[in-house]
Amino acid sequence: MHLTTFAMQALADFRTVGAVAPSSRYLTRAMVDPLPLQHAQVVVELGCGTGALTRMLLSQMPRKAVLLAFEINPRFSRYLKEKISDPRLVLINASAETVQEEVRRRGYEHADAVASSLALTLMSDRLRDAILSASAGVLHRAGVFTQYLYLHGLQWQQGRPALFPGARVLHQHFRSVERTIVWRNFPPAYIYACRGALRTPLS
Asked: pTM for this one?
């Protein structure tokens, strides 16, 4: 059922969904592995879709941790509420650029990990910079941010397709950016694990 839900939303609003299929288990595992989840108290997910990564995060988090999951697509939000009953999951219908405000508003000082499935290549430079800046700023000093980008990595510049410089963009916000490739996904994707936020963290 979630494949149908995902496909319908991708066709209706590809710019927001930014993918043609849910993430494979290989991609979600690669996104989760670098994150310090074993002792995490607050985890943030940006762009949940139909919850492939959400479920993986919940399976690895401590029982007393919380997952603040940002999803602006109302159909995806409804789907997640119906399909995932885990009390640790807090769905937030707000833009990812407000992540610092939303984390603080719920009484937390920082996040131990942030996992992003957002379509960075389809955003304006301003919005992308705001989201990455906020994500870096909300991280604990020992926190990790992960992001995946499809291997083709295309973005539009002045009406023409161009390769998206993922590592260079992420290096503007993090001191360390490590990249791996997941071939067993459709399409194949780069996984970026980022550490050492260049913005002043909350703690």
From this structure: 0.85
